[in-house]
């Protein structure tokens, strides 16, 4: 029973304390938080005052310190995703942030505004879809890692045994994690994507599950977090596991994605694609080696699939990656470069078979994890494909879905679900489930990193590129451009606050939030809106020569002013940049 947390909870609130009551059968524990001293203790049900205001909650996300003092964050609504080997998996969909303080009279006007901004940042993170948990199962580990554990590991609480790379509320749980006696109230929460389906092929029923675990190390948004940090953590690192459960047997196939593991940046500057900058001062080999040393320890052999362009602005990154692999000389690491855009231009996505053929023998060598109905490990996965493009989103997801399908084909044949000679592609009902799940996974990863749905999902969903898909890609690219330039600084600050990369100090003499925005940051959006309005007027006034001419003059005049601003001033002056974490921590 050690590796479980309480499932049914009630929150009792009094002016002095928060009481979190465990309502599971036979439970008498009550977690007590003193709203004045912030002390956390364990009590029993009879200690809850009858005058307390009571409501149900579904978990404690943790606590955080802001300008006004401490706050308690709780899960107030959840949705059932499915059952995972008889363990229920939930998605947290609504949260509440409760102040320990009963009044804000002790704050100045500036502090009140800062506190309001910090609360908005927390809500910004919590509003991004993709927080998952289970009160009885460790979602942070793959099946293979869980199969190779000690008896001591089995006795640990869910919080203690969790893979800290994927515990997104680890910083919020720091007070509870320090007190083992309250660990049954401590719920590790995953951020990413989970999809579960009961499927049938040839009259044989099996569960098919897709899990993407997003790392909280070097987490952030698209253009503000690239490359690696000094500890070797890669930006936008995601571990994706595909699982099959049939007749008691379980099989899984794991892949990873992550930013090109050298020190590079790509700060927004109003250009559609800012020029990537590779650091000239950093010790790339040190960070690179740290990254792959940890990857080899965790996953085994590394097969790198680099999908970036091999010309233009992406070429130096491809060359740097190839050079680092060659210089490291580690026999556990193999490198494949595949210029996705060049090979698949003119919508020739069938040419992805070239890459699949290149790595087919290696995929067979790596294998997959399989445990039989008796709990005996039949095969282990000996390594992973580590795929990347620039963002590790659109191109990466397409290739990962193809590799996963090939592994699934082999697994289902071995389990006896598919007959000899049968192809997954021929199973229309399952193919629809499979493609839509991988497209949904792409959208989830993209929204969490880039702020919009993924590109190229028409291919993932249908197996072919479509004109409608191209139009949707254009729309999503436009939204990405706006968010990356005008709102991602706030999103980056929000993530840094949530994960503890920035800690609020109410005694700080100068708040980073008090730095006024440059007038140019406010000017450009106004210019863009006016220019767009003039364009609409041009269309509405068609046929009226005088007014049409005037509207055209105004439109081009305003647009020219906007262009002049961008040319004369540094484009970075116009974008929404982070304000909480120092620049070197983001580069």
UniProtKB/TrEMBL annotation:
UniProt GO MF annotations: phosphatidylinositol-3-phosphate phosphatase activity; phosphatidylinositol-4-phosphate phosphatase activity
PROSITE patterns, per database record: SAC
Catalytic reaction(s) noted: a 1,2-diacyl-sn-glycero-3-phospho-(1D-myo-inositol-3-phosphate) + H2O = a 1,2-diacyl-sn-glycero-3-phospho-(1D-myo-inositol) + phosphate; a 1,2-diacyl-sn-glycero-3-phospho-(1D-myo-inositol 4-phosphate) + H2O = a 1,2-diacyl-sn-glycero-3-phospho-(1D-myo-inositol) + phosphate
Pfam families in UniProt: Syja_N
PANTHER family assigned: PHOSPHATIDYLINOSITIDE PHOSPHATASE SAC1, PHOSPHATIDYLINOSITOL-3-PHOSPHATASE SAC1
Full protein name: Phosphatidylinositol-3-phosphatase SAC1
Keyword field: Membrane, Transmembrane, Transmembrane helix
Gene it is expressed from: SACM1L
Residues that span the membrane, as ranges: 521-543, 549-569
């Amino acid at each position: 029973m050690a590796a479980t947390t309480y499932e049914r909870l009630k929150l009792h609130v009094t002016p002095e304390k928060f009481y979190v009551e465990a309502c599971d059968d036979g439970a008498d524990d009550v977690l007590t938080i003193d709203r004045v001293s912030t002390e956390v203790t364990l009590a029993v049900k009879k200690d809850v005052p009858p005058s307390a205001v009571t409501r149900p909650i579904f978990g404690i996300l943790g606590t955080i310190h802001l300008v006004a003092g401490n706050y308690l964050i709780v899960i107030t609504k959840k949705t059932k995703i499915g059952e995972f080997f008889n363990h229920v998996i939930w998605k947290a969909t609504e949260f509440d942030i409760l102040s320990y303080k009963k009044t804000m009279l002790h704050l100045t006007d500036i502090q009140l505004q800062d506190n309001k901004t910090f609360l908005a940042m927390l809500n910004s993170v919590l509003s991004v879809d993709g927080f998952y948990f289970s009160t009885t199962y460790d979602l942070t580990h793959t099946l293979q890692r869980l199969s190779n554990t000690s008896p001591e590991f089995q006795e640990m609480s869910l919080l203690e045994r969790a893979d800290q790379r994927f515990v997104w509320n680890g910083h919020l749980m720091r007070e509870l994690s320090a007190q083992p006696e309250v660990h049954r109230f401590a719920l590790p929460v995953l951020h990413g994507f989970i999809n579960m389906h009961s499927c049938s092929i040839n009259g044989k029923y099996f569960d098919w599950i897709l899990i993407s675990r997003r790392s909280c190390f070097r987490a952030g948004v698209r253009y503000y977090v690239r490359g690696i940090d000094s500890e070797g953590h890669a930006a936008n690192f995601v571990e994706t596991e595909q699982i099959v459960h049939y007749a008691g047997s379980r099989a899984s196939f794991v892949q990873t994605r992550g930013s090109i593991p050298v020190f590079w940046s790509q700060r927004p500057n109003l250009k559609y694609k800012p020029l990537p900058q590779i650091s000239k001062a950093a010790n790339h080999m040190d960070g690179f080696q740290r990254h792959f040393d940890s990857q080899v320890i965790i996953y085994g052999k590394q097969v790198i699939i680099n999908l970036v362009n091999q010309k233009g602005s992406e070429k130096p990154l491809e060359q740097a990656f190839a050079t680092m692999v060659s210089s490291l000389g580690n026999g556990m690491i193999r490198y494949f470069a595949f210029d996705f855009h060049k090979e698949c231009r003119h919508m020739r996505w069938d040419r992805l078979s070239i890459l699949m053929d290149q790595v087919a023998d290696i995929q067979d060598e790596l294998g997959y994890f399989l445990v039989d109905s008796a709990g005996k490990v039949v095969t282990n996965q000996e390594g992973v494909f580590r795929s990347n493009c620039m963002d590790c989103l659109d191109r990466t997801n397409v290739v990962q879905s193809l590799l996963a399908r090939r592994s699934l084909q082999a697994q289902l044949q071995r389990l006896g679900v598919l007959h000899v000679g049968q192809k997954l592609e021929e199973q229309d009902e399952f193919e629809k489930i499979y493609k839509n799940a991988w497209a949904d996974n792409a959208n989830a990863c993209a929204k969490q990193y880039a702020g919009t749905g993924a590109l190229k999902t028409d291919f993932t969903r249908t197996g072919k590129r479509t004109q409608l898909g191209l139009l949707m890609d254009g729309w999503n690219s436009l939204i990405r451009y706006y968010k990356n330039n005008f709102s991602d600084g706030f999103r980056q600050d929000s993530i840094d606050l949530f994960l503890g990369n920035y800690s609020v100090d109410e005694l700080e003499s100068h708040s980073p939030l008090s730095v006024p925005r440059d007038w140019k940051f406010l000017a450009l959006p106004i210019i863009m809106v006016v220019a767009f309005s003039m364009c609409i007027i041009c269309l509405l006034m068609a046929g009226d020569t005088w007014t049409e001419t005037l509207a055209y003059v105004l439109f081009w005049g305003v647009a020219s002013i906007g262009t002049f601003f961008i040319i004369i001033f540094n484009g970075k002056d116009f974008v929404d940049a982070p304000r909480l974490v120092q620049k070197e921590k983001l580069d």
